[in-house]
Amino acid sequence: MIRVYTKIGDVFSVELDYGSKKYFQLIAYDKTQLDSDVIRVFKTVYPCGFKPNLLDIVNDDIDFYAHCVTKFGVKMNLWKKLGNTVEVGDFSKILFRDTSDYGAQIGEEIIKLSHNWYIWHINEEFIDVGNLEGENRRAEIGIIVNPYSIVNRIKTGCYDFIYPQFE
């Protein structure tokens, strides 16, 4: 078995359809969410043959933030590690959300609309907010997302799993 090591600052590429790719970076470990990796995915789509500078990649606009296990995606050959840069941006304002209404037991109906939300910043305490209002509506889904679903969101802009809405 191949050992894969990842660390803060690592930059990864994900091949998309039609000979293109996008990049993301491991920017933090979130103790609030099981010490999971926090990534920031960049917006620009590059042709597969193009080799951008790491600083150009990490200075791109952000598409989204997510929690995942980056080494699993490498092991599953869903993305490739390119290099590392200390430039990880300011993540103090990144906001995540979750709800205890996520998931269901066998035979139970899935909750489609939640009024039981909590939010948090990386490595800070959960704050119970009930309904999502104002800026909290912009919070990213904060569950630890499997690598296939990360790739799906990179490719399509949406996750491929069922998750409660807030309106």
Helices and strands, with pairings:
Layout: E1 10-15, E2 20-30, E3 36-42, E4 46-47, H1 54-58, E5 62-68, H2 70-75, E6 80-84, E7 95-99, E8 117-121, E9 127-130, E10 140-141, H3 147-156
Parallel strand pairs: 7-10
Antiparallel strand pairs: 1-2, 1-6, 2-3, 2-4, 3-5, 7-8, 8-9
Could you walk me through the main structural features you see in this protein, from its secondary elements to its overall organization?
Keywords: Plasmid. This protein has one domain (10-156). The chain is 13% helix and 32% strand. The protein contains three helices and ten strands. Strands 1, 2, 3, 4, 5 and 6 form a six-stranded antiparallel beta sheet that branches. A four-stranded mixed beta sheet has the order 9-8-7-10, with no helix packed on it.
Q: Which keywords apply here?
A:
167 residues; mainly beta; six-stranded antiparallel β-sheet; four-stranded mixed β-sheet; 3 helices; globular; plasmid
Beta-strand share of residues: 25-35%
Strand runs, count: 10
Overall tally of domains? 1
Which structural class should the secondary elements be placed in? mainly beta
- Runs with pLDDT <50, length 5+? none
Give the ordered list of helices and strands.
EEEEHEHEEEEEH
Kindly provide the radius of gyration, computed on alpha-carbon positions and rounded to a whole number of angstroms. 16 Å
Distance between the ends: 45 Å
The largest pleated sheet is described as: 6 strands, antiparallel
Mean pLDDT: 94
What is the helix content? 10-25%
Shape: globular
Number of helices: 3
